[in-house]
Structure formats: structure tokens, C-alpha cells
Amino acid sequence: MLCLIVGLYILAVSAIGLVAGHPLSTRAMAGLTTVGLTLTPSFLLILFLWHFVYLAIVVRPRRPIQRFVGDLRLNITDGDKVLNGTLALIAIVFFFSTFNFAKDKITYFQPFVWDSYFADLDRILHFGRAPHEWLYPLFGTPLATTALNAAYHFWFFLMYFLVFMACYDRHSRARSTAFLFAVVICFVFGGNILATLLSSAGPVYYREMGFGTDYVPLMDMLYRFNEVSPVWSLRVQERLLEAHHMGGAIKGISAMPSMHVATTVLMTCYLFTWRRWAGWLMVGFTAIIMIGSVHLAWHYAVDGYLAIPVALGSWWLGQKLTRLVNAPSEPVKTT
User: Fold this and answer.
1) End-to-end CA distance of the chain, in Å?
2) 3-state secondary structure 10-64
3) What is the span of the domain harbouring residue 130?
């Protein structure tokens, strides 16, 4: 079913691209494939180490190494698991590459027109001040900014790791299938549809897109901090702007809603179905991502506020869809 949904999505994006005079490109596919080949060994190593530690500390078999080798052999020789997991992973790679293509074409259908409204709404909701101004007393140092940026970039690794884990999960297919469905629904509805209807560039590009100098002090602060402690987001932001004007491998400016926040909420829901302590850890990580999205000038606070119900709605729909396609004997845990 996941492959069918992704296939329909690719066809829809291809058709829209052809009508708009921008046929679907495969450049992003090569980049995502490279990322996948690079990260997969790391994912496997983490999973193997986790399972070995779990066996040694929790299960404590008489011969842990032999038990570990046996479990490893069982997983590798499970043809259905390997085949279904690989197909799901390929579908997700195709989906994300198509999503990135569609995200890059947002301004062909809707220019950035909402930024000033979201900036004003931010001030209205936060008692007359921009949200980043409230955050400054706590995070207005080079070291704190670097820590937030590290967490913000760690999101990328964590997101792909959990997707990889969900693709090959054999203990609760319903739980993992619901997560994969929810990811696709969230990116399509939030990252394509809402992002087009509410097209905005974000505080980092507020001046470049002609909305004024409201966020120049924030950007100046980040560049000052970067001279003391690295703020890696600045380079990514510069490359996105260059690609927006001249084309490039990394492109696709879009702020509303925050897909960092939305997907972190999805990961939280998913991990709550696995272990409650992991879910609560993700609640804290979600707060960090929300703060980082504002402090690093990627998003208005309202981008994250809207992302939360989008993610929760996607999780709910993912569970409903899973119940429709899965055998009734394996219930989906709810959060």
C-alpha cells in the first residue's frame, strides 16, 4: 500500500510539473541515494550494538554472543522482512526526492506573500515582541546557539534512522506502518499543500524577500556568534538562497509549517508506542527543535504551532489507514 501511495504521489507531482513546464527531475534522487548508502551502515551498526547491549543487560542469555549471532542470522535470512523492508525504504527514498522537487516549485504557484502576516501574528501572540527576543536571555550565547544548531542538524539523522527502523521492523508491523503512512501524509499535506497555500520564506530571508529589516538584528547576532562558536545553519541558509536565485543541488525554501517540528512530533508519537521513556525524551527534543527553529531564524513561532496539529492529524490518519490495510489481529497502539 505504501508503494502504491508513493507511486500515485509521484504521478501527481509529475503531471503538475509537466503542466507547469517543469518536468520531474531525478537530481535529488541521486543525492538522497548517496545519503542513504552513507547512513545505512551507521544505522545497522547502531541497531546491532543496541540489540547486543539489550541481550547482555536485559535478556542475559547464557551465551550472549551465540544468541546475538543467531538473532542476526534470523533477521538476515528472513526473506519477507528483507524484501518488504527494502521495498518500503526504496519507496520512501523516491517519495522524499519527489517531495523535494515539489517543494522547490512552490513559488511557481504561490510567491512568498505571508511572511509579514506571520511576523505580525508572532508579535501578537507573544505580547508585542518577536519570539526570538524572549529566547535571548536563555539561548543568546555562542555556545547555546551551537548546541541548538547541533540538535537541529541531528534531527536529520534521527528522522532517517527511525524511518529505516520502521521499514525493517518485524516486531510490530502495524506500529511501523502507521508511522510510515503518517510521514508521507504529513509531508504531502504540510510540506506541499499547506506550504503552497501559506507560502513563506521565514525570518532568515525576510529582508532578501523584500519584507523589511525586522530580523536583521537576529541574523547579525547569529553571524557574531559564528565567529566564536560554529553556527552551521548559516552556511545552509546561504546555499539555499543561492540555489533559489541561481539553481543548485540544495534548494527549496519554505517556512510554514515547520516540517522539522511536525516530523519530530511524529517521531514522538511513534516512540511512545515503543517505550514511554523514549517518547518523553522525544517530547524534550521536540521542545528543543521548536526553540531552535526560531532562534536560528528558520521559522516564525507560528510555523511550529501549526505543525503540531498537522503532525497529530497525520498520525491519526496513519493509524486509521493502517487498520484498513492490516489484519485485524495486530492492533495499532495509540498514544
Assistant:
1) 23
2) HHHHHHHHHHCCCCCCCHHHHHHHHHHHHHHHHHHHHHHHHHHHHHHHHHCCCCH
3) 87-325
Asked if 108 contacts 20 with a C-beta cutoff of 8 angstroms, the reply is yes
Comparing C-alpha atoms, which of 145, 297, 131 is closest to residue 227? 145
Exposure string (b/e) for 21-60, b if CB count within 10 Å is 16 or more? eeebeeebbeebeeebeeeeeebeeeeeeebbeebeeeee
pLDDT in tens, 203-258: 999 999 999 999 999 999 999 999 999 999 999 999 999 988 876 656 689 999 99
| Residue 70 shares a structural domain with residue 213 | no
Q: What is the pLDDT of residues 144-164, one digit of tens each?
A: 999 999 999 999 999 999 999
DSSP state of 110: S
pTM of structure: 0.88
Give yes or no: residues 55 and 110 share one domain. Answer: no
